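User: ok so my PI wants both of these folded by tonight, can you help

Assistant: No problem, let's get them done. Here's the first:
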Amino acid sequence: MKLLCLLLLASTLAAQPRRIVSTTPSITEILFALGLGDRVVGVTNFCRYPPEVARIPKIGTYVRPNLEAILSLRPDLVIIQENPIRLADQLTSVRLNVLEVEHFSAADIFSAIRKIGEAVGAPERARALNASIRGELEHIRRRTTPLPRRRVMFVVSRTAGTLEGLMVAGRASYLTELMDVSGGDNIFRDAPAPYPKVSLEEILARDPEVIIDMGDMADAAAVTEEHKRSVVALWSRYPFLTAVKRRAVFAVTGDVFVVPGPRMVDAAREFARMLHPEAVF
């Protein structure tokens, strides 16, 4: 009986994928959060966290993955998000094992963690990770519930150095969920698109109490404190805005806000600090 159990265990371990390719930063972060970094053999050019990913071979980008590079890594599992070039079909056509997950909402992230955990033989780790994230988010919600709700806007993109070409977080963005957890009401919650384009006139009319601007600072490594001050100065041209009067314009950078994954807790905590600087989180 003991020998049979050992054989079954060995068979299960052998069946688990040992060479995994990730095709988005969020998938990469989930794998590492599950303690599976040693199995990751390929990541995208934009995977930057945790720092260990710097040494892992690159397979291109989410919208332009290099199929030859993926094949050269001899993966036994490729994890993807729905892709505009039908990557799943291309990979299965060459007989690679593919797992497809989504990351559009917090519920999607929890589901992705569960599915990845099951696919790689780590369901208990996945359950523990999900429970930890939910617990942290609930803690932040409890801390912010007694505090005043703040009308907030998150700028995800705009023309560099200007307040033109503005794109913000809308109702379908998981950022809106995190702002809600953190005591904020997204002033563009009525926009059904995840990241709608809006005009400066719309923003002035809606008059946010807090402005969080990541507009032209996607590359965190290239952003200086002077750059951040220049972003705040852009909004200061409109001193009648409540956010400007409250000195609640924040220039932010970092993948933590734009990579839907386990670090959404860190994003929610940062939101809470910006929305409620009087509190401790």
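One down. Here's the second:
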Amino acid sequence: MKDTHNLQCEAPICQGDSNPNYENEVIWLPGELVCQKRPYHKFQQKQVDINKWMAKGMFKNIDEPYTATDLETRSI
């Protein structure tokens, strides 16, 4: 069965992205959609956490863009 996840996913950073360097080139802003493909990568869990913090008004860097690499390696 062909994986069509990336054709249906509207998240800016999608683990099904055909760009092999998507983790360093594609940006995500807090509040945007999170790719739902499983198993979750570390960057996806960080996105979910950030969106929860935003909903509670606890996240301050709402205008800062992040790449998947940023989300996985930086203390955010």
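The chain has one domain: 5-73. Residues 5-73 form one domain. Good luck tonight!
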